[in-house]
Write a structure and sequence with these properties.
alpha/beta; Aminopeptidase; two-stranded antiparallel ribbon; 12 strands; about 30% helix; about 20% strand; globular
Length: about 300
């Protein structure tokens, strides 16, 4: 592995989440013989005693290339279950890397994670409905506005969003995304629903499989209805979402780079996992995310079977 320097900083939130330095330590166990690591971007540490020091946003890709499994976690800092589950399953991921091409972004917003902030510079969603949301998972600057044919946004919302989107664009040709799992959580929902950005949308068997895994762990799902954003729910799955996210980028057939339209990642299945946080201990949520991770081989095989035929 590349020698990665990062400060030994404290994690503010006392909710049982793994200290951020422990997450980095565990990620260092991804074997160099199997993985290529890279610092996608760095975030400045928000403490006076750590001036001019940074927390790295890391990307890992297997030396094995081809139709790939993409795993993303920690885009929102107040959603710790995904990064914790990944850190707890490094040995399993090393085994999987011998057989399956993988791209892994395990902690996309370390600054937010250690402070329990949703965004790098903002604790929670702004109250003003028209305010710019500074998410590291925003990709609007490379996504096409169907009405104008131009980019949805003239520039990235922040440096992190720019560099993470760039990392996707630089790597999707060697690692065509067959299935994408983006690990999130939800501190507002009374019950569960997840998102599907892929080709089969609300009927995606991968999304349905994730719902079944989470149900077995005791999470209750909406069978029908609408989300707080007026999105249709069917059997715990929401689709047809245009949210300007990295998930939309990974599912896009065409994107805009340097003012020109080019072929996009065009992922076959993109599933955004959500677990309810209110009233649910972090330990239970991490366990649920871990069950999904431990089922990645069968998820990948299912995607192969579905999309190789179609």
């Amino acid at each position: 592995m590349t020698e990665i320097r990062y400060p030994n900083v404290p994690t503010y939130k006392k909710d049982g989440r793994m200290p951020i330095t422990e997450i980095y330590r565990k990620l260092s166990r991804l074997k160099e013989s199997l993985w290529i690591d890279e610092v996608i971007c760095s975030q400045r540490v928000d403490m006076k005693e750590y001036k001019r020091k940074f927390l790295p946003i890391l990307g890992f890709r297997t030396r094995l290339k081809g139709d790939a499994l993409w795993i993303i976690a920690g885009i929102h800092g107040e959603e710790p279950a995904g990064p914790n589950a990944i850190a707890k399953n490094i040995r399993f991921l090393n085994k999987l890397a011998k057989k399956i091409p993988i791209v892994l972004i395990p902690l996309a917003n370390p600054s937010g994670y250690r402070r329990d902030w949703r965004y790098p510079t903002l604790k929670r969603r702004p109250k003003c409905p028209n305010a710019e949301v500074p998410s590291v998972g925003s990709s609007e600057h490379v996504l096409i506005n169907p009405k104008t044919g131009k980019a949805q946004s003239p520039k990235p919302v922040n440096k992190e969003a720019e560099e993470i989107s760039k990392y996707v664009i630089e790597n999707f040709k060697n690692y065509p995304p067959l299935v994408v799992l983006d690990f999130h959580e939800d501190e507002s929902a009374k019950k569960q629903y997840i998102y599907s950005h892929g080709k089969l949308k609300i009927y995606d068997p991968i999304a349905r499989k994730v719902v079944r895994i989470l149900k077995k762990q005791g999470f209750k799902f909406y069978g029908s209805g609408k989300t707080a954003f007026n999105e249709k729910i069917l059997k715990g799955v929401v689709a047809d979402i245009n949210d300007g996210s990295i998930d939309e980028l990974l599912s896009s057939e065409k994107i805009i780079v340097n003012g020109k339209k080019i072929k996009g990642p065009d992922a076959k299945s993109v599933v955004v996992i959500e677990t309810k946080t209110i009233g649910v201990p972090l330990k239970k949520r991490v366990k649920a995310h871990s069950y999904i991770i431990k089922d990645l081989k069968s998820i990948y095989t299912l995607a192969k079977d579905i999309f190789d035929e179609g």
